[in-house]
Every structure is written in structure tokens, then in C-alpha cells.
Specification:
alpha/beta; 2,3-Dihydroxybiphenyl 1,2-Dioxygenase, domain 1; 2 domains; four-stranded mixed beta sheet; 3 helices
Length: 147
């Protein structure tokens, strides 16, 4: 019965995503507080809603802003990764394209958010890259097209 409650809640959340979002990412975590705070701060997102499906050990928080919609699914029984995405099967990193990285870099510097890579310019394709790491050690790659 819990499986159906979770599936129903996820379907309800998925149907109501804001259409104007440029990007979308859904993350699972054991501890939603630091994750919600980090994504709000890093990407200027606001909490749209929080859903706690009846009978499920799950909390879903939807954040939205001009860059992306972020869905944070919290379950205290999740097993944390070892923080080394290169040792896991699945998504290594996710990312977003932006018109200009400069205001984002200024935002992260003033908020004390560490950039783990970059900014670095690539020639093929012509882009400027920055990589961040969230509190659960997920890699977020932002690129700005050059030229």
C-alpha cells in the first residue's frame, strides 16, 4: 500500500511542475534541510510546496526559480553514497546552461558556496564551465556558451 501512496504522490508532483523552468533535477536525500537551504541559496530558488504522502516515509520539496526546478525527495532510510560519483553506476553530474556565469559566480562568492572546478574555458565546444558540489556531494555543472 505504501508503494502506491509513494507512486501517487510522485505522479501528483510531476504533473504540476512550472512550465517556465529552464532545467529540472530531482534528488533524493536523507537530510532535506541542508539540501533545501543550499539549492535555495545557490540558485535563487523559492519553495513552491512540500508534500508528505500519507502512509509513506517520504517528504518531497519542490523549489523553483528562473534557472531550474529542483525536487528534493527526503527519506531517512536511504543509504548515502560514498561521495565519489565516479565509483557509482548512474548519473555522474547534472548541469544547466546559463547566458552569463558572472552573476552566478558573484552570488556563490557572497554566499560562501565553493566552486570545485573552474571557471574554465573550453574550445570544443566553446563554453565556460563551473562545477559545484551540494551538501550530499552531488556535482552540478553550469556552462556558459562562448562566442
Amino acid at each position: 500500500m505504501i508503494r502506491f501512496a509513494v507512486a501517487g504522490a510522485l505522479a501528483m508532483v510531476a504533473m504540476a511542475q512550472p512550465a517556465e523552468a529552464k532545467g529540472y533535477i530531482a534528488l533524493s536525500t536523507r537530510n532535506p534541510g541542508p539540501m533545501v537551504a543550499w539549492y535555495r541559496n545557490a540558485f535563487d530558488l523559492r519553495i513552491v510546496r512540500t508534500v508528505r504522502p500519507e502512509g509513506a516515509n517520504l517528504t518531497v520539496t519542490i523549489l523553483d526559480g528562473p534557472l531550474a526546478t529542483v525536487e528534493i525527495m527526503a527519506r531517512p532510510d536511504l543509504i548515502p553514497a560514498d561521495g565519489m560519483p565516479e565509483r557509482h553506476v548512474g548519473i555522474y553530474k547534472t548541469g544547466f546552461a546559463v547566458d552569463n556565469l558572472s552573476p552566478w559566480l558573484a552570488r556563490w562568492q557572497s554566499a560562501g558556496i565553493d566552486v570545485v572546478y573552474g571557471p574554465a574555458d573550453d574550445t570544443q565546444p566553446a563554453q565556460r564551465s563551473v562545477i559545484l558540489r551540494d551538501p550530499d556531494r552531488n556535482l552540478i555543472h553550469l556552462v556558459q556558451p562562448l562566442g
